[in-house]
Amino acid sequence: MTAGDRGGRMRFQVLGTLEVHDHRWRVTPNAPKQRSVLALLLSAAGEVIPTDVLTEELWEGHPPPSARTTLQTYVYQLRKQFVRAAGPAGLPRLVTKHGGYLLDIPEGSLDAVEFERQVASARELLRAGDAERAAETLGGALALWHGPALADVVTGPRLAIYRTRLEELRVHAIKLKIEARMRSGQHQELIGELKELTTVYELDEWFHLKLMETLSRAGRRHEALEVYQRLRRILHRELGLEPSGEMRELQRVVLAAG
């Protein structure tokens, strides 16, 4: 098989378990530290990661004397896998540069980057008043997720920050989608989804607020007030806090509507 025969673009997935595949086969590394190296390189978005940063991350601040040699072995194994899948002249390329390593991958081949691109596009659509297309775009972006980010990768401090950032962006996208659908008038259709979201993100007041709003608009005032009371109990139990002024004001409005 020539390099040209192998030319299917490789895809990298971090929005769930770490996966690498092309149009024919899966080429995801199996060794835990090798997977961590790949995840770190992908998280750097085409920038060089110094060798010292990689070894500190992989061995949690206590790299053994053999750390650099072992890291070179992991990089060599990754390069072999990439060449086998894409050919010697193809992308991705894992290059040694300025005392570190850089992973050069084709544009659009990392799901996290594609996710952020689609969310940014949806944000512009929403700003332009096209709520329906914004919701559709956000649905496509969220469909790229297949579980918690880097679910099967051992993470040190740097990867933990990257994972948290991705999860926060996911929640942001969910909220944007809810907002877009509400602007499209889909209040009744959102009730079931919002109920589930208030369970998954029970400390996030925003989802409770939107559920109260949709229930109130649907004439289900009693259920809306129950949402407030449930949130109040959760916040008091978990954080020793009361609902925000915005939540209290919405409760007052719902009560007054009765």
TrEMBL record:
SUPFAM superfamilies given in the database record: C-terminal effector domain of the bipartite response regulators, TPR-like
CDD domains with a match to the protein in the record: BTAD
Domain OmpR/PhoB-type: 1-105
Domain of life the protein comes from: Bacteria
An annotated GO BP: regulation of DNA-templated transcription
Molecular functions per Gene Ontology: DNA binding
Annotation: DNA-binding region: 1-105
Gene3D superfamilies, sorted: Tetratricopeptide repeat domain, Winged helix-like DNA-binding domain superfamily/Winged helix DNA-binding domain
Family membership: Belongs to the AfsR/DnrI/RedD regulatory family.
Name of this chain's protein: Transcriptional regulator
Protein source organism: Spongiactinospora gelatinilytica
